[in-house]
Specification:
With 225 residues, the protein is α/β, with parallel strands linked by helices. The chain has a single domain, classed as UDP-galactose 4-epimerase, domain 1 (Alpha-Beta Complex). The chain contains six helices and eight strands; from the N terminus they run H-E-E-H-E-E-H-E-E-H-E-E-H-H. The strands form three sheets. Strands 2, 4, 6 and 8 form a four-stranded mixed sheet that branches. It has a two-stranded parallel ribbon with strand order 1-5.
Amino acid sequence: MSRRPFAYSKRCKPPAFGDAAEMPLHEDLPLQSFSAYGQTKQDVEVLLGYCAKAYGLSYACFRYFNASGAAPDGSIGEDHDPETHLIPLAIQAARGQRDKLIVFGTDYPTPDGTCQRDYVHVNDLSRAHIAAFDKLEQLGTELHYNLGTGTPASVLEVIQVVQEVTGLEVPHEFGPRRDGDVPAAYAYPAKAIAELVWKIEFPDIKSIVETAWKWHESHPDGFEN
């Protein structure tokens, strides 16, 4: 019986790189975690490498940055309980579904003092998965890709864009930093673009928020609608 390649993709957000001094984050940077969350991501990558060598498996590690957005037609979107992602939280605050949005930290070494993150649309992420399938047909293949747009947006920038797209105010207030939050984390996606022929169709935060807003407009109570 011939072995079939094993394709594994995982959500390996910036904590796997720790508080890297070099930005943007590229695949050659050493993984260095300073939280349990980040360490679990790093451990899985190490274990996949051992499994590949021991059993001749193929695998792909996709290090997602901040997966965001919704289906452009508004049919599928984020419906978490509890909700923890910034864009839907900001939209819910704008809609009056929560009293306010809390911005954690205003003294980071970023242009406006709030954390910067790389928001990447879920449709773009799905295309990267599909693009890797053919490469995994060759046994022993080991792939590592940072998946992001390479363009960071700060918390305050996201709030501003949500207000622009929705035409509604996002009530918010400022709070202290959260432990484990790095000032900035954004990808250098050139490797995925070149090797997977990956095209980012939602390259900016506004295009991502527009799809999220369409979902929330058509599903104000999530999938219960």
